[in-house]
Amino acid sequence: MNAKGTLLVIDLYDAPAGVLNDAPFIEGVAREVAGRVGAQVLEASCHTLEPQGVIVVLTLSQSHLSVHTWPEDGYAAVDLFFCGREFHEELSLAKMLCERLRAARYEEKVLLRGTRLSGPSAVVSRHGSVTSNGTY
Questions:
Q1: Domains identified in the chain and CATH numbers
Q2: Alpha helix ranges (H) inside the chain
Q3: Distance CA 82, CA 65 (A)
Q4: Which residues are catalytically annotated?
Q5: Is the pLDDT reported for residue 42 higher than 80?
Q6: Whole-number Å distance between alpha carbons of 39 and 64
Q7: Predicted local confidence at residue 2, as pLDDT
Q8: Helix (H, G, I), strand (E, B) or coil at 4
Q9: Confidence band of 4 (pLDDT split at 50, 70, 90)
Q10: How far apart are CA 115 and CA 47, in angstroms?
Q11: From the CB of residue 48, how many other CB atoms can be counted at a distance below 10 Å?
Q12: Which helix (H) or strand (E) holds 7?
């Protein structure tokens, strides 16, 4: 199956408000994700919301990454789009984000774009949580 791209959607839950409201830290984590997938950051935009919350958008070589946080709810939404390539599970981005943002659990979906398919073959869902010893 030749997908035009892959959209990785990650929801992170129960993260500390202080972490999710730290704009420079969130941007740094976003840049870390970009490096992990081998993408060059072409442009970065970081905006702190009032009274709280952060939006980071990175334009990447052949893709983009966005992070939106709701500190009051301990929630962060991360979207990463790869043009012309499929997501490789061994990158473990959701687990890395869960650890870096100190979230208790995550859910991720991988959507293949431009395949003219629908249903289970076009969407893969996974989830995980932190155990008491800090593993997933």
A1: 5-129 (3.60.90.10)
A2: 17-20, 23-36, 93-100
A3: 9
A4: 63, 68, 83
A5: yes
A6: 9
A7: 72
A8: coil
A9: confident
A10: 34
A11: 15
A12: strand 5-13
For the segment 76-119, what is each residue's pLDDT rounded down to a tens digit?
999 999 887 665 654 689 999 999 999 999 999 888 877 665 55
Q: Is 132 a residue whose pLDDT tops 80? A: no
Nearest Cα to 33, choosing from 52, 16, 56?
Answer: 56
Sign of the C-alpha dihedral computed for residues 42, 88, 3 and 11 taken in this order: negative
By CB atoms closer than 10 A (0-12, 13-18, 19+), residue 35 is exposed
Mode of pairing for the β-strands spanning 75-83 and 5-13? antiparallel
Report the DSSP beta bridge partners of residue 66: 57, 79
Mean pLDDT for the stretch of residues 116-134: 56
Phi, psi of 88 (to 5 degrees): -110, 120
> How many whole angstroms separate alpha carbon 76 and alpha carbon 99?
13
Percent of the chain past pLDDT 90, that is, above it, reads 60
- Give me the count of residues in the chain: 136
